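Hi, here's the filled form for the chain we discussed.

Project: internal
Contact: R.S.
Residues: 587
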Amino acid sequence: MWSFYRIFIFLLHVLWCKGVRVDDQWWEHAHLNQIYTRSFQDSDGNGIGDINGITSRLNHLKDISVDGVWLSPIFQSPLKDFGYDISDYRSIHPDYGTMDDFERLIAQCKELDIKLLLDLVPNHSSDQHEWFKKSSNPKHPEYHKYKDYYIWNDGRKLANGTRVPPSNWRSVFGGSAWKWVDSRQSFYLHQFACEQPDLNFRNSEVTNEMDEIIRFWLRKGVAGFRVDAVAYLFEGRENADGLYDDEPMYGGQFLNNPNHHTGLSHIYTMSLKESYDLVCHFHEVIKEDEFSNLKPILMTEAYVSLENQLKYYANVRNGVIRRIGAEVPFNFRLLTKTTRYSTAVDFKVCIEEWINHMPKGEKIRPNWVLGNHDNNRLSSKYGATRSDIFNILIKTLPGITITYYGEEISMVDVKIPPKYVIDKLNLNLDGSIFTRDSFRTPMQWNRSVNAGFTKARKPWLPVSKYYMTFNVESQKSGKRSHLKVFQKLMDLRKHPTMKYGELKIEAINCNVLAYKREIENVDVDVIVVILNLGQTRETIDANASLGRLPKQMKIAISSIQFGKEGYVNTRKVTIPANVGLVLIGRK
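And the returned structure, exactly as it came back:
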């Protein structure tokens, strides 16, 4: 009786022609793509990517089955941190275009059924924002309205009359998180660059301002936001002395390093309960009736522990979800916990720990990230010969997959000569500059000058020297290419088993990771993924490891260096080094 009921309910809720359940939301099995606006496509010949450039390349996003695209910040900014220092949340930076350009982009995305999401940066503004100018100047006529928009403190007064910061808190980019302002005779908090003062969300007026900014862009038609640096939204309150408590030393190699953020245990400046509550509040704003037709979502960025990452899904008490937070709290476990030397066991642990510890709820979905604008590109991190393996991995796991622009053609990091380095905010442990420019270089479209990114003589960052091979046009026309593997993966994601199938995953040995996706008790295809992470050929019995597989399964997708087609015997699968296989079959 139970089996019949399960089959009946499944058939009732699935539109078999599209493999979509009636109650699915657009984002639940989505392919989300991150565009670093400055590097995607230049439309006006100044060497900088822009909004019209993105509009001109939307067909490529459609070709790789993108459901939603989120843009790195396009707002007015002095660009000290390339848009993550916003001076006007309601206007477009002229490097990227105009509001008319943005509205045309929205309209074209709607026509192609691609959702557009924006990068929201609520933790801090630019020090060039009008709010900060007024907050830092007691002589300004609106000073009293804005004086508490940021976190100010007079600091400690030493015996000689010198003022020093109110705590030992450190900036993510190195050094003290406090900066003195003569005009106000006070320190302000900046958890990132000194040009990025932290907003004070203990002031309800600041929350109201951010709510209205969210509504402004939703009214333009955006489908949600990636919320930046959510772990830092709140800090501890002033203590009884009117100062802030020092954070304890973290220890290890960071001990007594006065410049590095990781030298402290951030018990007062990261992952406070109020930060999670604010994300839930922002979610309630985007779900207001006015925006119900958009079905908007939140994505959150936080490099924190697994426990703290998962809290961004929802406020859960006694196993019951009380308030929803983010539909997509970015899962950085694979990104931060694995390297090219990681074993199959390491990957299995990262995958299962997220799935097993997610809150239990009807619309709680896992998500998978392996690249972004702050981290090494997938192909550079794991090795160019293994780029297909890792695209196969994050495109065949259940839930939402996120692609950083260029991963579909296996773009690599570009070594930037010191004289051309632009991003200089991050410090290594030895005090040297760690630049993120290498991960942000121009998209490679074709074999023409500057990879088709710009007609300018010089793009804002150098183009990869490998662009003649690793570009969209060449891979589109090639017989086998990373792009064609990627497109096959995206087509496969539309299959009901890929959307609704359960996951069984095994580390066959240190080198081979294998898993199956299966909808039990329903006559649909079983899908099996086998990834050889090692440097030697492996032969495995997939049936013994994963159980109850068809004896013969068809090779649906494989890494470009694997030339075979047809069927394999699941009792004896031989897979070369650095190769991924996707098999499909019915029992």
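Let me know if anything looks off before we file it.
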